[in-house]
Amino acid sequence: MSETHLQNNYKKGVLEAGCDEAGRGCLAGPVVAAAVILPSDFKNGWINDSKQLSEKSRNSLRLIIEKEALSWAVAFVDNNEIDKINILNASFMAMNRAVDKLNIIPEHLIIDGNRFKNNTSIPFTCIVKGDTKFLSIAAASILAKTHRDEYMLKLHDIHPEYNWAQNKAYPTKMHRQAIVEFGITNFHRKTFRLSEKQLKLNF
């Protein structure tokens, strides 16, 4: 793991919350978002976009973030809600829920990505690849990912045939094959393309 040099703030002197989500591309389970307010002088050279980190590093950094953040919150939008409002709106909803759960009201939000539907009165800025640029967004990406992974491990105990302990419900070949073989669960997103037609020809 190489050291990073992410920025502390998008706006100086403003109480800022970074927001990110995890699980948008999964075939089952919730989309999970986090909002994190870090101290303005917070320093950590290892925090980065969660996708760039090993599972061990993410879990270690999660403990640091949750201990040292001024405020943090994680929120879930389950697969049934995703099917009702679509995954993009569900991602926005999860981020709004996370912001609402913060015990400090931020003065500004920085959102990973290029779009956001804001249900709060807090001004916001969308930042493409923000989780590789700003510490609070990267921290939010780590919390969202680790909390979602933790939840998917619990679902794996209920449905081990899909191997969610390993694939976390992302559309791996094995996950798609398991859907063809065993059908879907109450945790699958029914509006997603859950199996490939080509796979059915192989059985």
Unreliable parts: 198-203
| End-to-end separation | 42 Å
Per the principal axes of the C-alpha atoms, what is the gross shape? globular
State which percent range the strand residues make up.
5-15%
Could you say what the CATH architecture is? 2-Layer Sandwich
> What's the story with the biggest beta sheet?
5 strands, mixed
Mean pLDDT across all amino acids: 93
H/I helix tally: 7
* Rg for CA atoms: 17 Å
Briefly, what CATH class?
Alpha Beta
State the CATH superfamily name: Ribonuclease H-like superfamily/Ribonuclease H
Q: Which bin fits the share of residues in helices? A: 25-40%
Q: What is the total domain count?
A: 1
N-to-C series of helices and strands? EEHEHHEEHHHH
Class by helix and strand content? alpha/beta
Strand order of the largest sheet: 3-2-1-4-5
CATH topology: Nucleotidyltransferase, domain 5
What does this structure look like?
The protein has 7 helices and 5 strands; from the N terminus they run ββαβααββαααα. α1 crosses α4 (about 135-160) and α2 (about 80-85) crosses α3. It is about 40% helix and about 15% strand. It is globular, with a radius of gyration of 17 Å. A hairpin with an 8-residue loop joins β1 and β2 (about 30-35). Strands 3-2-1-4-5 form a 5-stranded mixed β-sheet. By secondary structure, the chain is of the alpha/beta class. The protein has a single domain, classed as Ribonuclease H-like superfamily/Ribonuclease H (Nucleotidyltransferase, domain 5), CATH 3.30.420.
